[in-house]
Design a protein that fits this description.
There is one protein chain. The protein is α+β, with helices and mostly antiparallel strands and 342 residues long. Helices cover 65% and strands 11% of the residues. It has a 4-stranded antiparallel beta sheet with strand order 1-2-3-4. The chain has a two-stranded parallel sheet with strand order 5-6.
């Protein structure tokens, strides 16, 4: 669930997400998940056969998820030459999301029937499918809450994706040991081929864990350089509600929310802002109570404050956005925030 949420968020950012974008991405994901489950459900094998397939599928997912997160930021540029800020069409979105989803959701869908057969054979359970489906739903609910309240706020997508990869590899390593028929622990690890693979696997896992912070940070920075080429990314932050990016170019700071430009400072687009502010307020004979919902900082508040009013309420959909817009010490924002009516 967390992996799906990360990819969905990254693609929503790249393709300026709305309901249609979300629907196409989820449709591709679910169709490919179902196809993977359908194909894997036709496999007939002994317990060790299911175990090898499950471990292989889990390991493939562990490596493909971070790769897809990285590529999701630049796939439209690689395949179709889309430049930063350009709106891509539905065809570009469909093909890009289909290719990315195929790399993870096909094998992820296959893990479900393989897991059911593995559990059924290992414990002679006839209700394995229902039990796994229950575990999966509990996990999905927990993951959704955890992602929204904690993970999205404190970690970037590649950190989360690589953490999921490590967890998947740990699970694969534990299965290598657990499904080993040898009872003697020493023989299991030293003599059995699966046990030897387990030792090698464990050493690789320890190495990967030690290098985790450096790898995730470098991949994150490199993907942002390619996604926002020609601009310096000076701030990047995920929130429970969206993604905020601030770029710097030729003494100008540009603020993006889910890849949509919302402000440019210290010189904003005053022509556009003035139309929004003055046409609205001049249509009322004496506006005293003014409410602005979204997009107030960076010029709009300043223009509205030129009109006499008794109170001015500014509500932002994402509470982190006003805080981030005040980080870079712009005179215009300081003046807007200092108005006693606000």
């Amino acid at each position: 669930m967390v992996g799906q949420l990360i990819l969905l968020r990254e693609l929503m950012i790249v393709f300026y997400g709305n309901e249609l974008v979300m629907g196409l991405i989820l449709s591709n994901w679910l169709i490919l998940e179902s196809l993977g489950a359908l194909l894997a459900g036709k496999i007939k094998a002994a317990q060790q056969g299911y175990a090898r397939l499950y471990i292989a599928g889990l390991s493939f997912y562990a490596f493909s998820l971070p790769a897809c997160i990285y590529l999701s930021r630049i796939i439209d540029q690689i395949l179709f030459g889309v430049i930063p800020g350009q709106t891509a069409g539905i065809f570009v979105l469909f093909i890009s999301s289909l290719l990315l989803a195929a790399a993870v959701s096909l094998v992820h869908g296959a893990l479900f029937p393989l897991g059911c057969m593995l559990l059924k054979q290992a414990h002679q359970e006839h209700k394995a499918t229902g039990k796994i489906y229950l575990y999966e739903n509990i996990g999905s609910l927990t993951a959704g809450v955890l992602f929204t309240l904690f993970l999205a706020r404190h970690f970037h997508s590649l950190q989360i994706g690589l953490a999921i990869s490590l967890m998947s590899l740990v699970a694969a390593g534990l299965l290598l040991v657990y499904l080993n028929p040898e009872r003697d622990l020493r023989r299991r690890f030293l003599k059995n081929s699966i046990g030897l693979n387990g030792i090698i696997f464990l050493l690789l896992l320890i190495t990967g864990t030690a290098a985790f912070p450096q790898i995730s940070t470098r991949l994150h920075e490199h993907s942002l350089e390619r996604q926002w080429r020609g601009q310096e990314v000076v701030h990047y932050q995920n929130t429970p509600y969206g993604n905020i990016v601030v770029t710097h170019s030729e003494s100008s700071y540009t603020y993006f929310y889910d890849a949509r430009m919302i402000a440019s400072l210290p010189v904003p687009d005053m022509a556009k802002i003035s139309d929004v502010a003055h046409l609205s307020l001049l249509s009322h004979p004496d506006p005293q109570q003014i409410l602005i919902i979204g997009g107030g900082l960076g010029g709009l508040l300043h223009e509205v404050q030129q009109h006499p009013s008794s109170s001015l309420i500014y509500a932002e959909l994402d509470p982190d956005l006003p805080e981030i817009m005040q980080i870079f010490d712009h005179d215009l924002i300081q003046k807007e925030m200092a108005d006693p009516r606000l």
